[in-house]
Amino acid sequence: MKILCLGAGGKISRESAFDLVTYSDFERITIADYNENAGMEVVRRLDDPRVDFVKIDVNQRSAAVAIMRDYDLVMDGTTISLNDRSTACIAEAGVNGINLNGCGAEWEFDDQFAGNDRICVPGMGMTPGITNMMTRHAADQLDTIDTIRISHGAFRPVAFSPAIAETTRVEYDPALPSRVVYENGAFVQVPPFARPRDIELPPPFGTHTQYIIPHAETMTLPKSLADKQVKLIEVRGTWPPKNMTLVRTLYDWGFMRNDLVEIEGVRVGILDAVAEYLLQSEEGQTTDLYGYALHVEVTGRKDGKLVQHLLTHTHPASDGSVKGWENLRAYTRCVGIPMSIGAQLIAHGRVHGKGVVAPEMAFEPADVFRELKKRKIDVHEKITVMEE
How far apart are CA 219 and CA 211, in angstroms? Predict the structure, then answer.
């Protein structure tokens, strides 16, 4: 089989490609990126005869579709702002697809993928992605569900890439309509920094105050787990403390609105200017601790008893003690590996459904956890019968 790794010149999706080279049996692995220099750098680093490069621009739809038609599967690592165009190309090409974000317009192409007898799995990273798998794993053991509280700590620089800078802006955009919680059968919109909750993450990350963020899990899980009578779904997240302080300050002072300001006769968005500074500064490119931490708490009923399932995950330290997990790679590998695992499961037919399918319905949690463990990423579960 042949796979096209769209956007794999980026720092995260190149980790997905690295995982494919290490673990998959794809016959051809093509790095596809608009940035030819970045794409060819990845080809050289992977140094595998199955790997080649093609320049692609999803804004040039006809040309992009023609390229994609030569593959069995497109692994899409492009940014949230491009996912509507990239998914449109994948659907038109009539091939299977999978992506990292799951927060774009992918669901609009459900009929097209289903009509082509193909599947597209949006949001198969750490969160969304592995958090969906954790939630489904807990849900499968419960008769009904009261609460689902998903939290994560993404310990990475605030702007180590344009895509990450974009994610930071999107999640705390004051006008964003998709920042919601699911409560008593309805989606309730909340502002930035809503519903603070202290979350204890696995070592070495510690306890952090986390706030509601706009994530795909909130939208897909009510449908996927409709038979469990879920009452509440909240998704929270945090970045390193310095990042959170910066974003809170930008929000409090109105920078997140990105108002236009005039500087020597040139009008620019104030947040655009801040983002460019961070992308070009040491402060925007470094942090004190690297890695990823998931925390999923599901409470519900089993045989009449109130039960809590608490799932977390751990990975090798970023201190250089484990080769390949040094510094930023402890973060980027965590995010990139799940998409590669999902692509490999699709290729081997270990996937459910046609059309656009959420991760928790597309894959079996046990299959995903088993593959993660091969990569030194471990999922932990604690089950507690609660007093009432």
Answer: 17
Cis peptide before 359 (omega within 30 of 0): no
Shared domain check, 117 and 46? yes
The residue among 121, 148, 171 that closes a domain is 121
Is 359 among the domain residues? Answer: no
User: Per-residue confidence at 102, pLDDT binned at 50, 70, 90?
Assistant: confident
Distance CA 225, CA 206 (A): 31
Ranges of beta strands (E only) in the chain are 2-6, 28-33, 51-55, 73-76, 96-99, 119-121, 144-155, 180-183, 186-189, 197-201, 206-212, 232-238, 260-263, 266-269, 291-302, 305-314, 355-356, 378-385
* 37-to-33, 106, 303 alpha-carbon distances in Å: 9, 29, 58
* Distance (Å) of CA 213 to CA 149, 151, 157, 229, 334: 12, 9, 18, 23, 20
Q: What share of the chain is helix, strand, coil (3-state, %, to 5)?
A: 40, 30, 35
Q: How confident is the model at residue 341 (pLDDT cuts 50, 70, 90)?
A: very high
Q: Give the separation between CA 330 and CA 322, rounded to whole angstroms.
A: 10
Q: Could you tell me the CA-to-CA distances from 4 to 53, 70, 80, 114 in Å, in that order? A: 9, 9, 18, 20
Q: Which two tokens stand for residue 58?
A: 């999803």
Domain that residue 160 falls in: 130-334+376-385
Q: Determine if the peptide bond prior to 162 is cis (ω within 30°).
A: no
Task: Verify that 8 and 157 share a domain, yes or no.
Answer: no
Cα angle: 74, vertex 176, 312; to 5 degrees: 60
349-367: pLDDT as tens digits: 999 999 999 999 999 999 9
* Residue 381 belongs to a domain: yes
Section 226-251 average pLDDT:
96
The reply to whether 69 and 34 lie within a common domain is yes
**Residue pLDDT, tens place only, 267-323:** 999 999 999 999 999 999 999 999 999 999 999 999 999 999 999 999 999 999 999
Maximum Cα–Cα distance for the chain, whole Å?
Answer: 69
Helix (H) or strand (E) holding 18: helix 13-23
How far is the C-alpha of 358 from the C-alpha of 67, rounded, in Å? 26
Structure tokens belonging to residue 197: 């909750």
Q: What is the CA radius of gyration of the chain?
A: 20
